[in-house]
Design a protein that fits this description.
- This protein folds into five domains: 10-183, ATP-grasp fold, A domain (Dna Ligase, domain 1); 190-313, 2-Layer Sandwich (D-amino Acid Aminotransferase, Chain A, domain 1), CATH 3.30.470.20; 334-478 and 662-730, no CATH class; 493-658, no CATH class; 756-868, Glucose Oxidase, domain 1 (3-Layer(bba) Sandwich), CATH 3.50.30.10.
- The chain is 45% helix and 16% strand.
- It has 28 helices and 27 strands.
- A hairpin with a 2-residue loop joins strand 15 and strand 16.
Length: 870
Amino acid sequence: MSSPNATPLILDLDSPEATLELAGGKGASLARMAAAGLPVPPGFHITTAAYRRFVDENGIGDRIVAAAAQADSPASHDEASALIQSLIQEGKVPGDIAFAIREHYEALGPDTPVAVRSSATAEDLPDMSFAGQLETYLNVRGAGAVIDAVKRCWASLWTGRVIGYRQRQGIRSEDVGIAVVVQRLVPAEAAGVAFTANPVTGARDELMINAAWGLGEAIVSGRVTPDTFVFHKPDGAIVSQQIASKETMTVRTAEGTREEPVPAAKRKQPALQPKQAADLAGLGIEIEKLYGQAMDIEWALAERQIFILQARPVTALPQARASLDWKVPHAGFRYFRMSVAEILPEPLSPLFATLALPVYTAATQQLMEEAKFLPPGSIRLITVHDYAYYELAMTAGQLAWLFLGMPFRMSGAVRMVRAANVRWSEQARPRFASIACEWSAHDLAATPARELVTGVQQLIDAAAIYYVTVQSVIGITNISEPFFNAVYNRLIRRKSDPPALTFLLGFDSTPIQAEKSLHDLATWARGQASLAEYLAQTSAKDLAAEVASPSVPISDSTAWREFVARFAAHLDRFGHTVYDLDFSKSVPADAPTSQLETLKFFAAGQGRNPYERQAAGAAAREQAAAMQLARLRGLRLRLFRRVLSFAQRWAPRREDALADVGLGWPVLRRMLREIGRRMAAAGANGAPDDVFWLTREELETAAASLDTGQPAPDLRPAIAARRQTWQTERAATPPVSLPVKGGSRLFGFDFSPWMPARSSQKSGNTIQGFGASPGCVTAPACVIHGPEEFDRMQPHDVLVAKITTPAWTPLFAMASAIVTDVGGALSHSSIVAREYGVPAVLGTGVATQRIQSGQSITVDGNAGVVTLGG
């Protein structure tokens, strides 16, 4: 860890020698902007060479590296950190370095308040960000205090969190260094961040500014909802602006900084005037040109002047939303994203679209023909820009056939409804489970590829029959609850009586059983000391990797193996619930992060006991029913008994039926990935998961080639192109009905109120949806697009998603409210949110686009409104 001869220890802020190696990522960026004449506060760099001199002269380098190398768990990371930080704090800064720091500090002015900021050599790089992990000290006064803050910055290179982060990123301790930037502190009246591309939509021609009163720490830490300005970069026009109620601000004190309330008169005033915001946008564009890429910029306003405090490349910019042409495939037909399309929220993978979608179409048509509800061939599943839609094609003659013959077909529909439960529970599910069990027992690695394809088709056939059978069950549940609500609210309920939903609470269902299973495991784990400590200190993502590996990461190997066995049993029972019906998407059995996140939540003693919550719901239900049964007489009593029995018999079955739509998906995914593995070995694709980007014909051809030893065609270019197309389509928002104008009208009726999402929203700070579960909550939002992001969810966040399915239920235990793009009063989100007692606003159509993670929002489940900015 020795430094080269003649390497500078202190540099002026705009020095051309302030490179990444000497000044760290933050320092190098500030030097670049200062040299370009941008308004950067004056200051200087304490280089990585100064840090290495300090380490060498105190003889602590080898001890630091050794301590970090031996740390292999969160607990040991913290132990190593404590040792290393004590070594640094006890060390003495070499005299020439201390003298140079004093000299440069005093040049800024006597007793000048400064910011002392860490700048690591792996910080603020395009593919890696240490942002927020190293320390910054504000309002530091006096040379002695500055030197002490510098040592604390050096020590922050070795916190337990940073040691663990570097290990996960594969960065060796020997390769890291740290510089420190000292700058005159801007007495900020307002501050914030600016993004030179829209971080919400991904639009590269837009620039977004967040602004709040005081120093910028309140925004960065998420303690305040800022004002938001969006500019169109080509012409500088304001696209939108949202002025928030800014309750808190960070201010300077004699000892440092503190949080304090914003004066009431200023809370709803904009923190930036229009010209100031426009000037800042111009500086942002200039910085983007300097770097040649989208930038994340920290800024402050003092005495009517804007200062740039930092700029780093944007590391997680979403793909710009596509503007697709949503023309209908056939003029005169109607297209709807309902039913099965509601659990296919994203563009379909090529393999699901060509292998499974035709089977689901055939099963749907068979159901419609049995019920004689629609003419033969009048409905099918198709894709538009790879999104699933139902196509309804009816001629005038078929429409007349439908309406004139309806009285004669009702008896068939009634018979199908009556048989729905038997067909689901005694026929379709056992058949699906039997085929899945049979293939789970196969040695997949020894099975010919064409036989695997045949097995995949068998599973898909059973899955499609199961799903359309479930639709009969769901159809009855979707009738039973509204029917009960209507009778109860119009004929039974008095003002003092409980709402209708009380009579449907507290029932058991598969998602609730899965939650109780996790709660039971967490309760047991809390009694195992070393296991409980490990769960508390390990992220769900890292824990998922450990559970899948043969290693034993804790000292109590017996407790660990028992934990792994119990968790495996949980996944065996509940791991097939789908996040997305497309089998290219993972299921909890192979992506259990969400399950482990909730388990950690329960193991930490957080959340309500699901047994107690269910018992409370059941007690409220029974009390409400007993009260009405004791009060009512005659016809109203008989009617109440009938509708209540109907609703309570069917309403809980919806979640049970829906939970098993992916019953065979875990083994099906293993079968397809086995074919993908063989194709990768033969050079036909790059990785096992590439198999999902094939078409059915390509899969069958590849399987035949693998079995006969024939050369397989190289499909990698086609797979890459399809992935790119899918990413573009995924960024779009598909209309819920087509044609876009008037597509929700059918036979003269407007069906838009029954669509699973709103087709349009007004601009502004509110988003309208369907109020699906009552209550009102203000909390930070967490926007989640799929299971790969479940670890972002923090306790008491508002869960914001396109849709939720039973596989999302573990997150409900942590959520304070639910908001979705798609869903209605009888969707999974609605039913489970009511069981959990959290507000829900569903079917907004735009929530995942307009809401940002960390943003404070108010969810009013009574009115069906989400207010941005709390």
